[in-house]
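Sample 3 of the quickstart, ligand zinc ion:
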Amino acid sequence: MMTIKTVQATPFAGQKPGTSGLRKKTREFMQPGFLENFVQSIFAAIDGAEGKTFVLGGDGRFFNTDAIQTILKMAAANGAKRVIVGQGGLLSTPAASHLIRKYAADGGLILSASHNPGGIDADFGLKFNGANGGPAPEALTAKMLAHSQEISEYKIADVADIDLATCGTQDVAGMVVEVIDPVADYAMLMEDLFDFDAIRDMFEGGFRMRFDAMHAVTGPYAKTLLETRLGAPVGTVINGEPSPDFGKGHPDPNPVWAKTLMTEMMGDDAPDFGAASDGDGDRNLIVGKGLYVSPSDSLAVLAANAHLAPAYSNGIAGVARSMPTSSASDRVAEALRIASYETPTGWKFFGNLLDAGRVTICGEESAGTGSDHVREKDGLWAVLLWLNILAVRKQSVTEIMADHWQTYGRDYYSRHDYEALPSELATDLMEGLAARLADLSGQDFAGLTVESADSFAYHDPVDGSDSQNQGLRIFFKDGARIVFRLSGTGTEGATLRVYLQRFEAGTGALFDDPQEALAQVIQAAHDIARLERLGREGPDVRT
Ligand code: G6P
Ligand code: ZN
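Result:
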């Protein structure tokens, strides 16, 4: 006999969603009632689950299927009508966003801690996306937090575990559960957007590529798209089997964590094109033969060349970037005479601009790029758009970058991360710096003169909402910029991010090593923020 149980609940501290949903150590998520409380709080924030349709899936990390079982039983107990779930519990974040839109669902629950490692001693996460397919805006996540702090009970159906292995429809306590192929709808969308014939011809002509799925969710998507549909040789996709601990790796597609790929791409026998994606498939890394393309540059190149792909052949409406992302895309927007926007870090801030049709392409320095085809950043989308551009221009990545920098100039760019700092130390450093901001103008640091400094605030032009304290910006007289910001996605202590940027005109030195080209800016950052107080030899990550 099926019963709906109402279970007494006591609030947990720390259910405040961050940059991208609730992200915690896996063991914290596994505490009895922790996940349940948060799921009930999500339902409360959206005025109940009664009669609603949801999309559900995750990146396959440890605890993914257990969490899905719990969420399905809770959705049923809360009166949801239907849940569409990826087979085996898998759905990449962009694929989930697409399914929400395609099937006009009321929202989706996505299980992932993105690029953070997986495993019982690693990280787990849960976020809610709304009917537009995008991450819940701050007003909604605030409601989730508020409810989690006063929760007294949750509802769950007392039923056997649901079969996630077989595609098809089942009844769970009066709710329809539809298990679907996680790849099919997404692959169809990609075929609509890009010129698959041109890309297929390029592969047939001997074009070589390596895609590192980092043992995460994009493996099955990349194999279907690149190897099956586009005819790239089998073996083009490496680390293509999703595993609960991502092969004990760190599924963050940056030059540090995607070491295998980077080594191959910098070697003598490098393929023409290399790419990688993260745990849940929304980030991307792009690398040519011997040349890493920074995410900020990739955004600019994609914006400048998007019209070469069928979906964007009529041009793009505008470009948005997060504040710490370099200004490279701004200059492209200016040349194209289209709008450009600067938003706080976090894909959710692009949602309104995309919904309102003000922008078509968005991107972040944190390796996210995407367009209005979904409401998430999309790793494979970026890879396919690059492939489409390469197929049409018939040039190498290096030739395309050289041409781009000669036309627009180059923003030498790097981000230095100091991870797992004691929270108090990091907060103290930021507060100290914020207090000195007003006095910085006119001062010299490492030979650079500060022109202005502020704490970034964003006024959303669509819904009129305001977001304060989104990072400390310091602008220099010759166009260099430093941004200091605390990460909103970490699960251990605090991570300080230092974003460094310097502009070099198209007639200048365009192929220098970014760390060397930025040496003066890096020194200025140390002097301004007194980084020696962190007691570290250097940053943990340089992008
Ligand atoms: C996630 C979000 C991105 C954001 C990134 C970095 O991936 O989806 O939008 O840019 O985290 O956030 P953080 O707060 O760690 O710098
Ligand atoms: Zn991600």
